[in-house]
Amino acid sequence: MRNRSSRSAARVLLAVLLLTLSELALAAVGKVLFVSGPVTLERGGSRTLNKGDTLEAGDVVVTGEKARAQILMADGAKIALRSGSRFRIDEFALPQAVNAPSQAAVVSTDGRSVSSLLKGGFRTTTGSVGKVDRNAYEVRTPIGTLGIRGTDYAAVFCAGDCTDVPGMAAAAPIRDGLYLGVYEGSIAFTSGGQVLQLNQGDFVFIPLAGARPEPLQTPPAFLEEDGAGRITLGSAGSARPAASSAQLDDFNERRSPTGGAEEGKDERKEGSDVSQPVIGTTPNGTPVDLTGGDAPRPRGQISYNLGAPGPVPGFTAVSTSDADTFVRDANGNVSAFAGLFPAGGGGSVAASYQIGTSANTNTGSNVATGLSWGRWSSGTATIVAGGTTLNPSLAQQSLHWIAGTPFDLDPVLPVSGTRSYVVVGATSPTDTRGNVGVLGAASLDADFTQQTISTAVVFDLDGRTWFAAGSGGFGGASGNSVSGTFTRVEVSGLLLGNGTLSGFFSEPTTGGPTASGFGLSFSLTDSALQLGTASGVIAFQQGAGQPVAPPALQNRDVAFAILQLPQVPTGTIGTLTNPPGAAYTVDASFNLTQLAGILPTDPVDVATYNIGTATLAEGGVDAVTVLRWGRWSGGDITVTGLTTGQTFTQSLAQQSLHWIETGNLAAPPVMPTSGTATYILVGSTNPTDALGNVGVLGSATLSADFTAQTVDSALDLTLAGNNWLVSGRGSIGAQANLQPHQFSGAYNGTINGALPAFGSYTGFFSQPGATVPGVPGGAGLTYTLSDGQGVFSATGVAVFRGP
Helices (H), strands (E): how many in the chain? Predict the structure, then answer.
């Protein structure tokens, strides 16, 4: 524990606060440091008051039962309001010496601070206002006005409502009136033209209706404590026995109005430390100092995430607790900490995290921001939450953490303006399937006026590119912490997702800029919930950063099939394949709305196919292979020949256009030159014909011989009461005059076991999702079938996942 007996250190700290808070004068007169319980702000209405909110002249702060609020004024004054209080800021102006240079209006030399205690009580350490001109400061009460001589004092006004006195019986009488106590400096109480001065160590009761003040040998309990705990501010000051000034000599008796005469000698010595900090608890139940002054022990912050176990996938949180609850190894890496754990219903419970048999890896630190980071991986960690001990395995996932340096006070943040941040370090993103990725880029911007941050991140993980953008609001575990959500999550330009974020502004380095660093924790999942949870942490430093945009749509494979087109002679059918690099567009869910492919005219042309007035009748996605499929039906599509420019419409009232697409492809999949692989069906469209019938694909198979560069496929489907059984072999790559990862083939079989059936298929392999190194993870194909007589037909899409 640090030695805080030196008042010079406190004065230096106050000077720093005054310089930092000069910015506050531009927008507000004060800022809320802490709230606990029901606390409201009255300003043209009533709303909940939160930590970090700014205050203006005319505001009334109201604390409810067992509630607490603490205010930092722009001149450095701190006011701790007890429960059941109403406190109004009537006037406020900064002294000229600390006023913002850019403010045009000239205020009084020593500023102005006038407020009213309407109900309840407070303890305060005064700021720069009133240091020179003592008339510049006053607190009005229902029975008189308080002035200062530079002080730390407390006041409680009782009017039949002082009932929350610790240690007193419920029926114990508490006399109505004003109770005052001075811990350092002096105050002056003025009422009815009379002035009463109280010095350090004086405690007095002033009855209602003009009765004479009564000195108190010892302060009543409720002057320093209420039902919510102690309300005194941390102070290095001392208390002395009650003053013997002439103004107090004629008091009628020295007793507490809550009981009989006090006996015994006051044993407090001159210069003794009577500091009694305001004590509260963090959300995880850890006691902390809430005075904003000389904290009895430094605190630290950590932001962390863990994909599983827990009822909330992708849990990310930030916790603030005593710094000695953070255990660091010899290298300064966190090996244990106190935090939160997700509970049912969206809540959380207090928890302790220990590294267990896992190990710190991917660690780093940044001196300028005071941030350090890493991730626990391998082995098992230990989590004790809500009385339950969990031992999650970190063999397939990691616990990512980012921590700041210990601090005595919450880092003082600007109350207006914006800042940009750049990446100075990060852990490698991981998922809950054992994959480790690479961070591409990240950006973060803070709006201190709106008390929000916005962030974006791009990284590659298991063959997929993730992009996430979101925002968060100040508050939570501490005034400098942030929590929020990602409102836009994309995977390979094909999948949607969601995510959460948490983080905190780090303690600025000595002489460094305000809010010099930010530690961010992120956790993401895809909407299909097939890829597990992707997570990581990022360290930012204040600097000129560039916004991170989602990756542009890249080349991708698209295959599609349609039975009949006007340019094709009646009864002729075919399978159409999207040529490499052809134009395409997608909707907000990445479903195709336009594609390009060959038009089987004579001679063959290339055309764009636009969804027009048709709609997406059905669709699906496989996140593992990054394949999406669907079919357009109803309305008319528009077809435009790219060579001739001729445009025509094609009705989909009696047929469908089936399609399948991959995600963004930075490069075509690398194909093996030997070996075999068998693929299983994971999705399909319902087969359709040219008469408006919709059927069911019962089964489909696909196998590849990469040595021979061939594929084999079979289909079993039912359509319009007819069962189709077909199979056939095709070629891969050059043997089919296609790219190395594409294939095409022919089907032969029967309809209802009697009529002959013919057809063709075309498709491609996709890279993500492989469990065997070097083998494509997925494949998609389109097919068209016919009886050869123009009576029966079928077309559709089948999607496969590899070994």
Answer: 3, 57
CA distance 214 to 225: 21
Report whether 468 contacts 429 (CB < 8 A).
no
Per the DSSP assignment, residues forming a β-bridge with 583 are none
Q: Decide if 83 contacts 229 (C-beta within 8 A).
A: no
The neighbouring-strand residues paired with 560 are 576, 659
Please give the DSSP secondary-structure letter assigned to residue 692. Answer: S
The residue with greater pLDDT, 633 or 412, is 633
As a whole-number percent, the residues of the chain with pLDDT over 90 amount to 40
- HEC letters along 231-290: CCCCCCCCCCCCCCCHHHHCCCCCECCCCCECCCCCCCCCCCCCCCCCEEECCCCCEEEC
Residue 481 near residue 497, CB atoms below 8 Å: no
* Residue 271 burial (C-beta neighbours within 10 Å; 0-12, 13-18, 19+): exposed
DSSP-assigned letter for residue 759: E
Residue 325 DSSP code: G
pLDDT over threshold 90, residue 728: yes
3-state secondary structure 131-189: CCCHHHEEEEECCEEEEECCCEEEEEEECCCCCCCCCCCCCCCCCCEEEEEEEECEEEE
Per-residue confidence (pLDDT) for residue 509, from 0 to 100: 53
720 in Cβ contact with 693 (< 8 Å): yes
Spatial CA neighbour of 349 closest among 376, 312, 403, 381: 312
Distance, CA of 480 to CA of 508 (rounded, Å): 12
Residues facing 471 on adjacent strands: 454, 485
> Among 184, 162, 245, 247, which residue's Cα sits nearest to residue 213?
247
Q: What is the pTM of this model?
A: 0.64
DSSP letter assigned to residue 23: G
Residues 6+ away with beta carbon under 8 Å from 595: 558, 560, 578, 582, 583, 584, 608, 609, 659, 661
Question: 453-469, pLDDT tens digit by residue?
Answer: 999 999 999 989 999 99
Per the CB < 8 A criterion, the answer to whether 402 and 519 are in contact is yes
What are the tokens at 778?
Answer: 């997925």
Res. 264 pLDDT band, cuts 50 70 90: very low
